[in-house]
Design goal:
Strand content: 15-25%
Strand order of the largest sheet: 1-8-3-2-4-5-6-7
Structural class: alpha/beta
Number of helices: 9
CATH topology: Rossmann fold
Order of helices and strands: EEHEHEHEHHHEHEHHE
Shape: globular
CATH superfamily: Alpha/Beta hydrolase fold, catalytic domain
Number of strands: 8
């Protein structure tokens, strides 16, 4: 079952129709999206769609696509979709099947091997280190040096992400997927110092983009650049939406969480 909680900076607008949908397949790591959503709140009605299945529920990209479609088909018009990492993969797979529901798609930290996420790297090295040793290394590579308190907190977040988030990877199987053209406008964004999706993997998108699509990267910010580079990224997103055909942005943010 899906539930909707409407949140607004100024007032609850239950009748507001979302223009932008932030896709979220990781409850544990959603905190890193908040700075960007705050920036976007000044420009458009934004909804957070969250896929958070129960432990006894089938958790797969196919199931997530169906759940997302159940929500998007209730809207009176197509929406701009944004997704970071696996959430972006979900958006791309969805746009391939249901392009009529998508006004544009923005991919954050999604490389030319579209299935690669931080869990892909984790499972590749899992045989070499203990889980705690590997998670400590992943925190350093993803977030830089941290004091012990922050290190413990980030390790906990990554542990929760491994257990509860949607990912195509496991200890015994890591997936590779090549990108493909989609019929809707596409924006691909990343950071040049991302250890999960390096700049070469990001720039390789150029061979798959059609006229009107965009590729943008920032110098630093790492895999979660949408947190530290939120103002610059928000500017790119809004400009992309305004440039997209028939795009009309309107009222302030109305944010909803759907689980």
């Amino acid at each position: 079952m899906s539930t909707v909680n409407v949140i607004s900076k100024t007032a609850v607008l239950e009748t507001s129709i979302p223009e932008v949908i932030w896709l979220n397949t990781s409850f544990a790591l959603q905190c890193f999206a908040q700075p960007l959503l705050e920036q976007l709140s000044e420009q458009a009605n934004v909804t957070q769609w969250q896929y958070h299945p129960q432990l006894d529920e089938d958790c797969s990209l196919e199931q997530a696509i169906l759940r997302l479609h159940d929500y998007l088909k209730t809207l009176p018009h197509p929406a701009h979709l944004i997704g970071h990492s696996t959430s972006g993969l979900l958006g791309l797979l969805y746009a391939r099947v249901y392009p009529e529901q998508v006004k544009s798609l923005s991919l954050l930290a999604v490389g030319v091997d579209i299935a690669v996420d931080w869990q892909f790297l984790y499972y590749q090295h899992r045989w070499q280190l203990s889980p705690d040793e590997l998670l400590s290394s992943m925190v350093y590579n993803l977030f830089g040096y941290q004091n012990q308190r922050n290190l413990d907190c980030l390790i906990t977040l990554l542990k929760h992400d491994l257990i509860y988030s949607l990912s195509p990877h496991s200890l015994f199987r890591q997936v590779h997927l090549l990108p493909y053209e989609v019929a809707i406008p596409l924006l691909v964004c990343g950071s040049q110092d991302d250890i999960v999706v390096d700049d070469q993997d990001l720039q390789a998108w150029g061979a798959f983009l059609k006229p009107g699509d965009r590729l943008w990267s920032c110098l630093d910010g790492g895999h979660f650049f949408h947190c530290s580079q939120a103002p610059a990224l928000a500017e790119q997103l809004v400009d992309f939406w305004q440039d997209s055909k028939h795009s009309q942005l309107g009222a302030p943010l109305t944010s909803a969480v759907i689980s």
